[in-house]
Amino acid sequence: MNFSDIFNRSFMEGFTNSELGFMEVAIVLLTASVLALYLFMVYRVVTRRTFYSKNFNIALAALAVITAAIILTIQFSIVISLGMVGALSIVRFRTAVKDPMDLVFLFWSISIGIICGAGLFEIAALLSLIVTVGMLILDRFPLVKAPMILVVHTENKDNIEAILGIIKQNCRHFKVKTRTLTQGNLNLVIEVRTDKADELVSGIDQLQQIRSVSLLEHDGEVTY
Question: Three-class SS of residue 223?
């Protein structure tokens, strides 16, 4: 046996954990499962007002447990870990993440698996608690209300002054976005900020030769 064989044998033995028993594995996977279930419930609550995907939520919980099992395997043997790295390197995920919050939950799930696999259960639990509290606090921050869109269709183009007068009385701010004139018929699209939506629509509707009045509200993001 030459020096190279001795070095390789010592190197391999140094990265082999022979003390990893069934109880240790069970504790790690059970803890990861509990935190994965907690993650499952948090995702369900946080996405209550948006599009909720049950399959994606189940995948988050499963990913945490699977990652924990991978970390345990890597700790057990460097040979297996190198083979696993090679196997995972050929996997290609092509599912697009549509919501940035989904990306946060993906990293959270993977982090739970890695931390639990390393045996640092307190850090995993504390991380989950801090992330949950942080998201709930930030979610309560008030947002600037998006402006509404007023669409007016009138058969008399001379009504524009009367329409703008009513808008000035009932709106804090307004901006005419488009004016479309077709064979004497006028279409107005106006961006407004108002707390008197009913008075605004009723006032314009009472004018002569008004064909339709629509006030649209959307949930889009506000650009500052």
Answer: coil
Cα separation of 142 and 96, whole Å? 29
Burial of 11 (0-12, 13-18, 19+ CB in 10 A): exposed
The pTM is what? 0.60
From residue 119, alpha-carbon distances to 20, 25, 29, 194 in Å are 11, 10, 10, 56
Tokens of 183: 């064979």
* Minimum mean pLDDT range among 3-7, 38-42, 44-48, 59-63: 3-7
Tell me: do 95 and 203 sit in the same domain: no
The secondary structure of the chain in percent helix, strand, coil, rounded to multiples of 5, reads: 60, 15, 25
Higher per-residue confidence, 106 vs 208 = 106
Same domain, 90 and 188: no
Q: In this predicted structure, which of 18-27, 85-94, 186-195 has the lowest mean pLDDT?
A: 85-94
Does residue 98 share a domain with residue 177? no
pLDDT in tens, 76-101: 666 666 666 665 665 566 666 677 78
Alpha helices in 15-159 (DSSP H): 22-46, 54-76, 78-89, 100-117, 121-139
Q: Which of 22, 62, 18, 8 is nearest to 39 (CA)?
A: 62
